[in-house]
Amino acid sequence: MNAHKINIILGGIFLLGLTFSLTYSPFAEAKASAQDGLEKIKTNIENSKLNVQDYKKNLSIVEKNISEVSKARSQVEDQKKSVSNQVKENQAALKKVEQNDKELNQLIADEKNKLILDDKKIKELEEMIGKIKENQTIRNKNITDYQVQLTQIQEEKKVWATRGDALKDQEKQVNDKLKTAVTQENDWKNKKRGYEGEISRWNKEIDKQQKIYDNYKNLAEVKD
């Protein structure tokens, strides 16, 4: 938005011209010259007021945009917190599954070692073959059960790992959105400061032009 044009008249130059006119021209011409100066100052004041109105409209738009961006930023921050909590929950669940995996593998290893020991006992203690074979049957069943559980754990582990990757991507997207919202908010705040500065500047210009107008008006009234 271009600022309205201001015709600034230097007081000293105008007064010098007015003095010259009073010396060499009729009184009517001096009065007309003063009146022209007043009209230009009035135009300056009107243009300054229009500038203030324009910048106030722009400031209102900027403030609304800042409010909307702030709301969007708040929503993104909530999303970030939610995703972060889900990431933590997923990591905890994955850790638990990995611990179960480790424990089951250890149980299987233990059972296999016990089978080896049982084979030795069979050779050494024929009288205990029946009991040992019974133990073997039980332990083999345990191994089968553990292997079934291990297979299920492996599948569950894959599910949690896949979900973890998806959550990492979602977390990155939320972080990118938050970064964009913060950048937009800062841009609008900078524009707000600019418009506020323009409003202040043009208000000062109005005061300045009003003082010049009042001085010339009083001078014109004296000449009347």
What's this model, at a glance?
92% of the residues lie in helices and 0% in strands. It has helices at residues 11-24, 27-124, 129-223. The longest helix has 98 residues, at 27-124.
Report on this structure.
About 9% of the residues have low confidence. The protein is built from three helices and no strands. The protein has 224 residues and is mostly helical.
Q: Main β-sheet, in a few words? A: none
Name the average pLDDT: 82
Top-tier CATH class:
Mainly Alpha
**Ranges with pLDDT <50 over ≥5 residues?**
5-25
Instruction: Indicate the proportion of strand residues.
Output: under 5%
Number of helices, counting only DSSP H or I runs of 4 residues or more: 3
Quaternary structure classification:
single chain
CA(first)-CA(last) distance: 41 Å
Indicate the structural class. mainly alpha
Could you give the order of the helices and strands?
A: HHH
Query: What is the total number of structural domains?
Result: 1
Overall, the morphology is rod-shaped
The whole-angstrom Rg is 44 Å
Total E-strand runs: 0
Percent of residues in helices: over 70%
- CATH topology heading: Helix Hairpins
CATH architecture group name: Orthogonal Bundle
